[in-house]
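To assess whether the prediction recovers the assembly geometry, we first specified each molecular entity separately, as shown.
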Amino acid sequence: MEGLFSLFIVFMVLGSLAHTLSQAATVKKNTKNMDQAIEEFHALFTMRADVLAALAISSPSEGGTSSTLTLSKINPMLSYSTRIDVLGDPLDPFEAAEQVTVEYRLEDGLLKRFQSAPSAGTTAERLLTCEQMEVSLGAGVPSILEIRLSFDRGRVVKQRSLKVAVNAL
Amino acid sequence: MEAILASFMLLTAIIMSVAVFDSSLQAEASNERRIIASMVAESALAELRDAVNTNMTAARSTYDGRTWTLPEYSGFEISCRVGEAKLAVPCTVLETQYDQDAVFPQPTGRYLDASSIKADITVTWAEGRNQSITITEYVTSFAAAGDFDLKLLLPDGSPATGATVVTIAKDDIQDFSVRAMSGGQEVQDIQFSWYVQALTGFGSIYTVSRDGKLCQYQNAYRNFDDKIKYSPGACFLVVTAEYQGREAEAKVKIENEP
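The predicted structure of the complete assembly is given in tokenized form:
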């Protein structure tokens, strides 16, 4: 009787251990999914921040769709006092020399952000692996810019999209 | 007996650890969905911001109580509630000292209550029981103004034209008001300034509401000795305002009777 009871307890313990190990594996998988979701979120919100700061959006064109997002904005490295420096610099704080061009495009399966400044050349940042990128812009102003990204996650392709209200083109 | 007790304690400990893992698992799955839900909420807010940029009145009626989903996120239901936003200018501590129900010319609190809306976007998704997140934002129009114009309204409510002359008897007080227009819509919650431009005579600004929207003009003025004086003849009552860097002015000619 004691032997049966201890066997029952041992199997119960082993069963619980097996369940715990499988749960641990699932947690690990979910943590990976979570990390990917955070990366996707970060990439989309980085693009959103640039769109909101944009003075002009050159790609996609008004009412069109494109695989790249190109915009110009004020060079964030320059302070306002530098931009209106009266000693040798025009008072206009939005002149072309004080702007940077930001471009998002896919290269070698990676979503990359390129920033070009007239005085500092081009810098590239790798954001994350991405299968497809599509950016569409509504006609007229104000309008909505929609960013759609596709990610291949093994057996499934995940689609992520984010809309941004824009006032400048 | 001790072995049985120890076994049950061991079993309890293992069941507890399993429960902790299970909760962790559920939380992980829930967090991923929460991140997606926040993206859905942000996209819904972008739609609302765009609608407000186009026409705030229409956006308010379209989005209040609306429920919809985005094609890419069909499992996430969005619902929107639009309410009044009442923002004290410059701050609540200063503005609450004024009676909100006071009628001009009594001073009343200054609030931005017509130029923005308070939007609550709730995204709901099914996960065991329903989960939801709510984002609240004050939404205002950032549409660039292509034009800006002021309409000075006479005491009878009709707009003043270039040919309008308002005759005011000595000591009499008349009420004027102003409306700002841009893109065919009234611009709300901006500050107006009034002054008198003398021609052959002049009166004075008697009272101006704190937002400058209402003005009382009197055919009289006070000199530095605080004595009431009169300067019969013509003058302009002028109102000015600035909106998105554009300045506008409206005026009406006033004939001050002797």
